[in-house]
Every structure is written in C-alpha cells, then in structure tokens.
User: Which sequence fits this backbone?
C-alpha cells in the first residue's frame, strides 16, 4: 500500500438540515439493519442508491423495506460498489414501487426473489450484469404485475448461459412483455418465443452462401439473424477463398497467420490500464485499448498489470432532519453512519456548519427558553462535537473519534436546540460540509 499516500483524495460532501415543527418526516438515507449496506434517496431525481459492502438480512415482506415510505417517489434504482456487495436475495426489495422505471441488479446477488419487483407497474428497463447463468436464479413472482407491462431486459449478450436463464423464466405468467437488449451496447436482441431461447448457442442453423460466408437462421422459427464470415488462414492466406490477412513477417512476402497471440498490459492511470493483443510470431499489434483494473483475488493489486490500486469509497448520509413539537420538544432521526469501504483508514479532517435562509448559529448549550420567538437561532451537536460560537458559519472541533478504520463506520447521532416558532416552518436551515481524506 506504499502508493496510497500519493493517491490520497479529499472528498467534500454537503448535508442539509430541515426543521419541521409539529410534524414528522420521511427518512431519506440510512443502513439496512445492522449491516454495512447503505441506502440513500435523492428527492430531486427520484433515484434510490444502494451501496456499501457485505450482505444483509433477507426481507420477508415489503414492510422490511427501509424506504417503504418513499415507494411512490422512487423512479430509479442503482447499486454502487457491486463487487463489494454480497446481497444474497432481493426478495421484496422494491415491491409496489409503482413509479420505478429503471433498475439495476448487482451481479453479486444470487437470487432475484419473490416480490423483488412485483407491483412495479412502470418498470420498463431492467439491467443485469451476470457473467454466467450459474450465478443467479429468478423466483416465481419476482416481477408480477396485474396488467401487462412492456419491459426491456438488458444483459451481457455474449454470455449465452445468462440469456438461457432469462429466456427460461415465465415472463408471461408475470404479465411482462419482454424484449432483449445488450446491456453494454443497448443493441436489441432477437427472442424466439416458439423455441424459448434468445437465438444463441445451439439454437440456430448455419447456411453457407459461398466458401467463406454463411447466413444464420433461428432453428425454431426460421428467422434470418445475419450474415457472417469464416476464413481459414494458413500462412496468412485463406485456403478457401484466397484472401490474405494483410500482415507480413520479418520483412518477407509471406503473410503471418497470427495463430499464436499474447496480451501485454501496461499501467495507464489509477482506474485503468492499457492492453495490446500481439502476435507471438511477428510481434504485430492486432488490437489495443484501455480497460479497468481487475482484482479478483482482492489483494488491491491489478491481476493483469500489477498496478497497486487504492480505493477511496465512503458513504455519508445525504440529509439530516429535525422535528419540533408545538411544546418545543426536538426529535431527530436515525440517519446511520459514515461507512468506510476504502482500502485504508480515512478521517473527517474538517466539518463546517453554515446556516441558510436567515438562521443563525449559537452555542449548543444556549437556553432557548429565554430567546425570542421567531429569532431563528439554532445550536447543533453531532457525534460528540458541537457549535460553540454565534454567527452563520463555524468549523467544528474534531478529535480522534472522527478517524474511521478500513471497513469500519462512524455513527452520527445528532441533536439541536432551536428557538420557538410562531408558525410551522419547513425549510433548509443548515448545510454541513464534510471533508474526508486518508488518515
């Protein structure tokens, strides 16, 4: 991990505080149970984001959804840090999210369980990233709706076994009229309802047009699926049609057949390396490009180019909310914690509090019983630190408790004292800016 210091990143995150006197609120972020799986909801975009690491308890009913109060507002579902997540089953996760239009399923989830997307009457696009059909299954009732809904299923089309699992599922029983797309290229894929396959693998017939060209037809319904080439090169010359592959070896006139190749990987940047596919015989570069580092053995070293990787991944709640009763009693929500999934310890190096909409900061110990009604003043405390000054901006004092170990978390209990209000107020009163960096 010697390079981590050179790659240190600082991340600034804003949190908004709302005050709702005499009212309750909807929590918009948190963790799932006692796990390290976090969720947050963006009210502007309607996006529900799931992130974190590890797994969580399997839901047994829709009431287990932490975001149940937001079902009608959720429009998109995204899973971040999919390689770190180990959510076993999505049963009942998104049941009755009636305005959900697009959703991802993490490739580390093995079961799309009963009720996962049941009642999602607006779901028109589902994105899957599985590399093999052996990695997942779909339970009956996972996508059930009362009336027929057209849904695009997007998956890696090059993975035949994934297509077969999807094609074998009884979508008609779920009232889903499905179409198939390549998740990486948005290319529509043909589906044969008669044969029950996605026109892949052994489910097609090959008809030769000439010595090196052939057409593909669906084995079951006979639909034309395209024309392909199949040359047979020996010493760079096709033995069937005489075409050369355009490469020469050693400056001579004989073309190289490139029958043996090797891959060369070179570190390019923190997230990527470059690659070249070279002919082992003549050294020609046959293809090249860039791709993300690969770390299947989780040792933080790229398996292909040996680049020592770092990952700065921290989840912070998106909002804090306060409710104040007519009697002046203040109640706060349980917003969870800052979760560190980086490749090392991180710390909150600074925390700045700034009031907005005419509110003023005061020391947290201020006795509000002696303050004027509608004075719009607030004192604030979070995770052991509190406001000490009067004004509109203050940098809070932080101690060693604000260092978060790798795969650890920092709970964020908070509280406030607020001056009395003569009428209901619903507005942002404060912004918190966290700066996080390597410890």
Assistant:
């Amino acid at each position: 991990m010697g390079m981590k210091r050179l790659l240190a990143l600082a991340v600034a995150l804003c949190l908004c505080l709302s005050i709702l006197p005499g009212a309750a609120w909807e929590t918009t972020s948190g963790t799932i149970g006692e796990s390290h799986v976090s969720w947050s909801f963006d009210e502007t975009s309607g996006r529900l984001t799931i992130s974190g690491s590890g797994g969580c308890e399997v839901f047994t009913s829709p009431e287990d959804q932490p975001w149940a109060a937001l079902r009608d507002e959720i429009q998109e579902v995204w899973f971040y840090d999919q390689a770190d997540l180990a959510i076993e089953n999505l049963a009942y996760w998104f049941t009755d999210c009636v305005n959900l239009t697009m959703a991802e399923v993490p490739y580390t989830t093995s079961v799309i369980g009963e009720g996962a997307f049941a009642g999602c009457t607006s779901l028109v696009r589902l994105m899957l990233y599985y590399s093999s059909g052996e990695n997942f299954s779909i339970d009956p009732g996972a996508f059930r709706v009362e009336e027929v809904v057209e849904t695009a299923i997007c998956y890696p089309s090059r993975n035949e076994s994934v297509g077969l699992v999807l094609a074998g599922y009884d979508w008609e029983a779920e009232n889903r009229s499905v179409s198939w797309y390549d998740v990486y290229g948005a290319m529509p894929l043909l589906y044969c309802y008669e044969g029950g396959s996605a026109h892949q693998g052994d489910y097609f017939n090959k008809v030769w047009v000439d010595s090196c060209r052939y057409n593909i037809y669906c084995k079951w319904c006979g639909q034309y699926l395209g024309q392909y080439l199949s040359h047979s090169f020996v010493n760079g010359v096709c033995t069937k049609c005489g075409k050369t592959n355009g490469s020469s070896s050693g400056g001579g006139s004989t073309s190289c057949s490139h029958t043996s190749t090797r891959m060369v990987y070179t570190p390019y940047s923190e997230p990527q390396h470059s690659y070249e596919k070279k002919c082992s015989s003549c050294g020609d570069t046959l293809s090249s490009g860039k791709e993300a580092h690969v770390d299947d053995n989780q040792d933080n070293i790229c398996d292909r180019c040996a680049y020592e990787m770092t990952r700065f991944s921290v989840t912070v709640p998106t909002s804090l909310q306060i409710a104040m009763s007519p009697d002046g009693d203040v109640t706060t929500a349980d917003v969870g914690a800052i979760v560190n999934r980086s490749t090392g310890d991180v710390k909150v190096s600074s925390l700045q509090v700034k009031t907005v909409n005419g509110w003023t900061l005061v020391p947290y110990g201020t006795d509000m019983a002696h303050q004027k009604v509608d004075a719009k003043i607030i004192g604030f405390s979070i995770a052991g630190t509190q406001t000490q000054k009067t004004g509109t901006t203050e940098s809070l004092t932080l101690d060693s408790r604000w260092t978060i170990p790798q795969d650890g978390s920092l709970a964020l209990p908070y509280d406030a004292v607020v001056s009395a209000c003569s009428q209901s107020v619903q507005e942002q009163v404060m912004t918190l800016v966290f700066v996080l960096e390597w410890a």
